[in-house]
């Protein structure tokens, strides 16, 4: 595990994205848990006290922003990075209101995602 602490929880309905995220994050020395959607994460029970969430916006059944709101209702206060194929001002506003700290656009470039993850995992 890296100097950062906690678990990186990836929620994305695309199996290839989950696999590539696991590979990239584990190369960074991070502990990774994968979920294929909001319902799976909510059903998982208790989440770790430290770490961060990477949540895809466009998933069947429950959009990422709605999942963030449900997690906040459950008092899950882990930092959230929302991933999307297309970021709009409206989506960034909704994500921020729900509790996301960062919205990143796929495909990820220039280290934006990893920088966001390291910031989210840094002691507060």
Please specify the SSE layout and strand pairing.
Elements: E1 7-11, H1 15-27, E2 31-35, H2 38-43, E3 51-56, H3 64-73, E4 80-84, H4 89-98, E5 102-105, H5 112-121
Parallel strand pairs: 1-2, 1-3, 3-4, 4-5
Helix pairs in contact: 3-4
Give the averaged pLDDT, no decimals.
Answer: 92
Assigned CATH architecture: 3-Layer(aba) Sandwich
Distance between the termini: 19 Å
Count every helix, treating DSSP H or I runs of 4 or more residues as helices. 5
Number of strands: 5
The CATH superfamily is Response regulator
Protein name: Response regulator transcription factor
Pfam family, one: Response_reg
Modified residues (4-aspartylphosphate): 56
Keywords: Phosphoprotein, Transcription, Transcription regulation
Structural notes for this entry:
- This protein has 124 residues and is α/β, with parallel strands linked by helices.
- It has a single domain (7-121), classed as Response regulator (Rossmann fold), CATH 3.40.50.
- It is 40% helix and 20% strand.
- It contains five helices and five strands, in the order βαβαβαβαβα.
- It has helices spanning 15-27, 38-43, 64-73, 89-98, 112-121, and strands at residues 7-11, 31-35, 51-56, 80-84, 102-105.
- It has a five-stranded parallel beta sheet, sandwiched between helices.
- Helix 3 (64-73) packs parallel to helix 4 (89-98).
- The longest helix has 13 residues, at 15-27.
- The chain is globular.
- The mean pLDDT is 92.
């Amino acid at each position: 595990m890296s100097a950062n602490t906690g678990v990186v929880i990836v929620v994305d309905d695309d199996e290839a994205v989950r696999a590539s995220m696991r590979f990239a994050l584990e190369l960074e020395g991070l502990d990774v848990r994968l979920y294929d959607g909001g319902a799976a994460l909510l059903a998982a029970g208790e989440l770790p006290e430290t770490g961060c969430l990477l949540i895809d916006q466009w998933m069947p059944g429950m959009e990422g922003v709605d999942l963030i709101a449900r997690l906040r209702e459950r008092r899950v206060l882990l930092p959230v990075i929302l991933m999307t194929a297309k970021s709009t001002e409206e989506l960034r506003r909704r994500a921020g209101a729900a509790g996301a700290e960062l919205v990143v656009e796929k495909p990820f470039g220039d280290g934006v995602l990893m920088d966001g993850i390291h910031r989210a995992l840094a002691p507060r």
